[in-house]
Amino acid sequence: MTTLVCTNASGAAAPATRTRPYPSFSSYVMARRPVLLRTARSLTANPSDAEDLLQTALTKTYVAWERIEDHRALDGYVRRALVNTRTSQWRKRKVDEFACDELPEPEPLPGRDDPAEQQALHDAMWRAIMKLPARQRAMVVLRYYEDLSEAQTAEVLGVSVGTVKSAVSRALGKLRDDPELGLVRQ
Fold first, then answer.
1. Does the pLDDT of residue 96 top 70, yes or no?
2. Is the dihedral of CA 23, 81, 54, 72 positive or negative?
3. Which of 65, 82, 127, 175 is 20 to 30 A from 89 via CA?
């Protein structure tokens, strides 16, 4: 450890003593462990993993204890060690995937894999949507094709949210009752 030298007003050099808020590593750990454990728990889902993470970060801090010049910044150092350690653990996580001769494919649902049937359903849906009044059609397209929320749809069309809810509800009812869509769904 180096000794700092300060000069006083008379110009004479006098050794400066380094003040450390924590005289030893164990006193630091005893004083700050609950706060650091809360930080570790916020980084992990499991309390046991948080304790392991904190222990690893404190081990790294202990190794660097003599190199840390400003002991007022210890919490920041330990927090950075916590985050870096957690990131390393995340990157090294075990992957439960392995190569096999045949890929496990799900069984196809009847009628879902046929492109002609998908196109027929798509066309029937658009014909049914085109039968809706312009205002209801616009609301259905914005809500379900553009994936806007009710509030966003209301804002785009300049109407209230309640108007969007009721108009979309009526439009969906008409689509459910459309005979052409009923034939395609069967």
1. no
2. positive
3. 65
52-72 average pLDDT score:
88
Distance CA 7, CA 1 (A): 20
**Distance separating alpha carbons of residues 138 and 142, to the nearest angstrom:** 6
Q: Is the dihedral of CA 113, 114, 120, 123 positive or negative?
A: positive
> Residue 74 is encoded by which pair of tokens?
């210890």
Q: Which of 147, 44, 28 is nearest to 89 (CA)?
A: 44
Q: Which helix (H) or strand (E) holds 174?
A: helix 161-177
- DSSP single-letter state for residue 142: I
Q: Beta partners for 132?
A: none
Residue 133: closest CA among 182, 171, 175, 173: 171
Indicate the range of 13-17, 43-47, 177-181 predicted with least confidence: 13-17
Q: What are phi and psi of 5, to 5 degrees?
A: -120, 130
147: left (phi over 0), alpha (psi -120 to 50) or beta: left
Cα–Cα separations (whole angstroms), residue 31 to 39, 50, 75, 184: 15, 18, 11, 70
Residue 135 three-state SS:
helix
The burial class, CB within 10 Å (0-12 / 13-18 / 19+), for 14 is: exposed
CA distance linking residue 121 with residue 183, whole number of Å? 10
